[in-house]
């Protein structure tokens, strides 16, 4: 891609990211193009569908989550590692209003532009869950699909005006249900204290 085309694409992504953060994933593509100072045809030339635009916006965050999971797999504290990654997932999913719905749909749709990124990210979280389970720190009756659904639910709750003020508390409640015994209290308390609220 030529430097000027890359610059134009990056500008479109920055404008689209701001619009979706404000208005949600159903933000008007025409309005995004107008804000970016281009025609709708130009936006669609770079991103032919709304999903393609979302995939481009979310890919960097998903890649970062996957890379973080790779790093956390070497942690001496598998429970804390899982909680840290889960918190980052929730924050990522809430960066763009309504994105969690698109993510939950895409994970089941192989034709979705978001499918591959979502599957890779879910696999990263699954590895951390499995490691915590093997260490006896997480319940064994859930799998990566369950973890992805719980994380998506937490992101959705944090996106709702009525429940957003309780998002951190709800995160603790869910995590205490994933982790087992004393490990759950230690991991949640430590992470909440030093982490950013979802």
Question: What's the topology here?
Answer:
Blueprint lengths: L2 H21 L5 H8 L3 H7 L3 H23 L5 H17 L4 H8 L8 H20 L9 H16 L7 H12 L2 H14 L4
Helix pairs in contact: 1-2, 4-5, 4-7, 5-7, 5-8, 5-10, 6-8, 7-8, 8-9, 9-10
Keywords:
198 residues; mainly alpha; 74% helix; elongated
Structural shape: elongated
β-strand amount: under 5%
N-to-C order of helices and strands: HHHHHHHHHH
DSSP strand tally: 0
Quote the average pLDDT.
85
Q: Helicity, in percent?
A: over 70%
Question: What is the makeup of the main sheet?
Answer: none
Structure description:
This protein is mainly alpha-helical. It has ten helices and no strands. It has helices at 3-23, 29-36, 40-46, 50-72, 78-94, 99-106, 115-134, 144-159, 167-178, 181-194. α1 crosses α2 (29-36) and α7 crosses α8 (144-159). It is elongated. The two termini are 36 Å apart. Residues 182-186 and 189-198 have low confidence and may be disordered.
């Amino acid at each position: 891609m030529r430097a000027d085309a890359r610059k134009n694409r990056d500008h479109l992504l920055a404008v689209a990211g701001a619009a979706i953060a404000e208005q949600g994933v159903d933000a008007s593509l025409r309005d995004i193009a107008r804000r970016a100072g281009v025609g709708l045809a130009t936006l669609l030339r770079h991103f032919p569908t709304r999903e393609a635009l979302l995939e481009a916006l979310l890919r960097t965050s998903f890649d970062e989550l996957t890379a973080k999971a790779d790093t956390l797999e070497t942690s001496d504290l598998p429970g804390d590692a899982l909680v840290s990654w889960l918190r980052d997932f929730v924050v990522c999913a809430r960066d763009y209003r309504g994105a969690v719905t698109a993510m939950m749909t895409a994970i089941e749709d192989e034709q979705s532009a978001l499918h591959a990124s979502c599957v890779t990210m879910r696999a990263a979280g699954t590895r951390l869950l499995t490691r915590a389970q093997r260490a006896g720190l997480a319940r064994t009756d859930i799998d990566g699909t369950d973890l992805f659904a719980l994380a998506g639910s937490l992101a959705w709750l944090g996106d709702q005006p009525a429940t957003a003020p309780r998002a951190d508390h709800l995160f603790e409640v869910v995590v205490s249900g994933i982790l087992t015994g004393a490990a759950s209290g230690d991991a949640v308390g430590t992470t909440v204290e030093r982490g950013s609220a979802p």
